Amino acid sequence: MTLLDIDGLKTYYGADDGWVRATDDASLSIERGETVGLVGESGSGKTTLAKSIIRLLPDNAEIVDGSIEFDGTEITELSDKELRRQIRWSEISMIPQNAMNGFDPVYTVGDQIVEVIRHHEDDTSKAEARERGRELFDDLGIDPDRIDDYPHQFSGGMAQRAMIALALALSPSLVLADEPTTALDVVIQDRILETIKEMQEELNSAMIMITHDMSVVSETCDRIAVVYGGRIVELADAETIITNPRHPYTLGLRNAFPDISDDDQELISIPGSPPELVDPGEGCRFAPRCPFAEEECWEVTPQPESYGDGHQVECHRADEIEHLQAEAGKKETWREQDLGDREPVGTADEQAAEAEVRLDD
Ligand SMILES: Nc1ncnc2c1ncn2[C@@H]1O[C@H](COP(=O)(O)OP(=O)(O)OP(=O)(O)O)[C@@H](O)[C@H]1O
Fold first, then answer.
1. I need a labelling partner for 79 at 20 to 30 A (CA). Which of 91, 162, 198, 237 fits?
2. What is the number of the ligand 1 atom nearest to the C-alpha of 276?
3. Rounded to the nearest 5 degrees, what angle is found at the Cα of 48, between the Cα atoms of 45 and 53?
4. Is the CB of 12 under 6 A from ligand 1?
5. Cα–Cα distance for residue pair 237/174, rounded to 1 Å
6. Where are the stretches annotated Disordered (predicted)?
7. Every domain of the chain and the residues it spans
8. What is d(CA 28, CA 63) in angstroms, rounded to the nearest whole number?
9. CA 40, 229, 102, 74 torsion: positive or negative?
10. 138 with 130: CB under 8 angstroms?
């Protein structure tokens, strides 16, 4: 059963030089209990998409179009009060990138967990809420007596676990996990991911797992949405994304992360960097970095095409799967692109501004 249905979502940030189109026409639906990965480089728009769902966006952000239907409720139409009362933490919760920022430094971690529980459950006493917090700590491998500590007394790994406790305290139907382990060392990362998965399965919560790491999503997710330049450029079950992707960006990402089943794999990175999202113009946003870009790619924005079994791809050349997959595995394919007199998408203004600065000098 569909829990979350995002349709044509556009979330933009107001900036001095225009709108930053951080989420630009994203559509995605999620079933109950399902785990969907959002993968893409830093700046591709993953966090903006997740924060739009729980409406924890900064002041300069605006949802300018589209809908987010959660269990029959249109999130974009709720007042802040309704959202806090009915949805945030109780139905949808978020584990942020850095847990330390999620806690208020002046209250003990326990007090904050009790506060969240009691805000949503009028009938739960302080003692009961505290006991639930202690049990969650125990489940997450933290000594329950540490519940009276202040956030700064926790190590990074412990704070992250405590944040997971907070995010799961009200058994939400959907958990948004935003790079929940990037701030931690590698050994702890695996353990925390396992814990999140176990707790999520126990509660039968759905989860959106945000990461730039292809290996993390392949191990933890049922489906994967690949995000680039504010758009979902490929969406399919995890197996298809890992073994049979069609989008050149997905192929590039796959080259850049170690495959646990292949010891001899040579890692190849994608040259260049993600596009500026102010006024990106028409055309595929990946074209300036894509070794397969043709005339059409520069001129026409590709729309999602279906390749069966929920596999969707936004690429004009996605039909040429054998050619793309064969060439994408070669290092020489991913040389810096010779763009000739083409301007990379979206950076025309930036280049003009730079030229002006030089003239002013
Ligand atoms: N408050 C803001 N004001 C203006 N632009 C912003 C703001 N927050 C993010 N952006 C821009 O929006 C785009 C998407 O950012 P977002 O944080 O959603 O990407 P991300 O894929 O989650 O990256 P990261 O992994 O670094 O968080 C980027 O170009 C970023 O610079």
1. 162
2. 29
3. 130
4. no
5. 19
6. 326-361
7. 2-228, 237-356
8. 16
9. negative
10. no
CA 153 to chain centre: 29
**Higher-confidence residue: 87 or 349?**
87
State which of 12, 42, 182, 231 you would mutate to test the pocket of ligand 1, scoring each by most atoms of that ligand within 8 A of its C-beta.
42
Of 214, 266, 202, the C-alpha closest to 245 is 214
Bigger pLDDT: 260 or 234?
Answer: 234
Out of 9, 46, 63, mutate this one to test ligand 1's pocket (max ligand atoms within 8 Å of CB): namely 46
CA 20 to ligand 1 centroid distance, Å? 9
Between the CA of 23 and the centroid of ligand 1 the distance, in Å, is: 9
Distance from the alpha carbon of residue 48 to the mean position of ligand 1, in angstroms:
6
pLDDT digits (tens, 9 = 90+) for 110-128: 999 999 999 888 899 999 9
pLDDT above 60 for 181: yes
Q: Which of 11, 12, 13 to mutate for ligand 1's pocket (most ligand atoms within 8 Å of CB)?
A: 13
Q: At what angle do helices 156-168 and 126-139 cross, to 10 degrees?
A: 130
Q: Name every residue whose Cβ is closer than 8 Å to that of residue 56 and which is 6 or more positions away in sequence.
A: 88, 94
Residue 74 has pLDDT above 50, yes or no: yes
Indicate whether residue 44 lines ligand 1 (CB < 6 A): yes
Amino acid at 89: W
Is the domain spanning 2-228 CATH 3.40.50.300? The answer is: yes
Q: Which residue bears the tokens 């997710």? A: 221
